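cron nightly-structures :: item 1 of 1
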Amino acid sequence: MIAGVLILFILAHVAKSFDSTNIVFTIVSQSEPYHASVARRLKMDIENQIYELEGREAKVHITHEDFAVPGAWTIIPLLRPLVSKYQGSDVRWVLFVEPHTAVRCGKLIEALAAADKQKDTMWIGYPLSDDEPTIIHHFTFFEELEEDGGFVYPNFASGFAMRMELIESLIKKIESGERQLEADFSIDPAFELARLVYGSKDQRGPLLTPDLSFCVVSMDNCATYPRQFESCGSAIPESSVYFAVKTWSGFHESRARVVKKTWGRHVTNLHFFSDLEDPTLPSTNLGIPNTKTGHCAKTIAILKEVLRRVEKMPQIKWIFLADDDTILGVRRLCEVLSCYRGGGDVTVLGERYGYGYGKPDAAGKGYDYITGGGGTALSAGAARLLARCACAAPHAPDDMSLGACALRLRAPLAHSPLFHQARPQDYPREVLARDRPVSFHRLPREPVKIYAAWFQHDDLALSTVRDEL
């Protein structure tokens, strides 16, 4: 009898040895109203779950409110604030999630309790890998890790967890200069964090431990999984968007014609801006010579010309800037824009990149920008504001110049992972499976087939609705 009671006591003690007091939930959020509301709902959900499970308050942070550091979305600038707040406490793990990540706290505690027992397990998540070098990962391919199972990095949409011990060690290495990012650009924070943790061949850090309870689709055993993006009511009318395509005379008969043959068929307000007048597109000569790189002067001129045109078009609430090799899903764009405030409010939406984050001396020097190839949606108010931006040189990078200017003008940028700067094959299949994309870019081969595979079905339905009105 005594032995049985002792066993029950030991089991109860073990069961209580790991709980939510050992976890910090970190929601990597944005200040834009829609994204902020999604983050707050997730925070409330986590708090309610923990209270129901354990009758206590959870440690949950929304980064744009609790750790308002520049470039927080790249994760690395969050490490020092987290260490400063929780060093020496009972916190043993930090969970990083996106606002659209679903969290089942009971399953999560089980997963982290199991990982916590494995002292050599430093961080866990769903493992992603690249089949070949890709531009979104700086063409980096770690062949030397093949013997250890290859270079894997966590699927951020599923969330990932890091032991506080690892975070403390990593921040020391960053601040001492032992570890630093090899590129000035931030594109995929989970990949770049993995590269930083792994370090060099001579100073290898702990590899990500795969844990399939961090799921890519919802199943019964999932501790986390990505929730799909839902439109906020009806999709906005495509006629409320002015589509401005940047091109030049050398691409009128190739890329520009592909735009007209694919997504351009399904929009009302489409115009090309070039170095040559072409009424068959139609295109407008902006009087700015074409440059091989940059295009800052050209993009600012496009904004000013479009704003002049829409002065007498009160139905226009959004301006969508695209390259002539941007492949777009029009219906999906209109669904996504239903969640954002158009018209006079300042909203700049697309795929966010960063410049100048992740190094010890980068504080206050980095900035975000919307990378242009995946397309940029600007509310009319944002377009009027950014049209005031100046270019350091006509050939300066247009997207980076607008990003730096937006920071100076305090115009917030909103990130959506549904916009894509690269080709479909540049992304792991799990990343693209989370939801219907809005756009792709850099499609020198078979762009019509890519459009047909990803966007045509939805856009044909959009045209049918328009014809019925």
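cron nightly-structures :: done
The two ends are 79 Å apart (CA to CA).
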